[in-house]
Amino acid sequence: MELSQFNGRKRAEDGIYMRLCDPYSGEPMGDDKDAPGFNVRGIASHTVQGRIAEMQKAAADADDGEDTEAALERLHQNLIDSAMRYIISPVNMTNDGADVKTDDEIRAFLDMTFPVLEVVTDKDGQPAMNTVKNKDGNDVQIPKFDLSNKPFAKQVIDAAEDGARFLGKTSGT
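The structure assignment produced for this chain is given below.
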């Protein structure tokens, strides 16, 4: 039996193409021949593992004292930062007629779709709550949220973290 077919680390490093979908409908974007997307590395990639370690160190040094609006913006920026660690290159992407190439242009593209959060409800229609510690160490109740759309950054993350796609086990877009 040829064991190289199971070399997920190499295939994750080599990367795959992932086609972008409309963040709200989930429908694939563009025609097959010119569909926009990214070439992405998988989470098992040595390159990605190094980037994850760098991000974890930066997160440990971050300030937690922020309001809700700032927390949502931080969530969005964290999604973009996470997606950037996987992206090798954009494919079939232009903005105002110019090819998207640089990291700043990719970030600007990922920034175009913002995560929309909806309050999760229980079986009685009441908000589901999570207990968290506030900055004073006290337990507080906050609503539980789920993403109701799939921003471009989240699509990149989901594709890169689907190890089976790198072994050709799923079709994906």
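Interim note for the steering committee: The helical segments are 8-14, 46-60, 68-86, 103-110, 152-160, 163-166. The CA atoms of residues 43 and 161 lie 5 Å apart.
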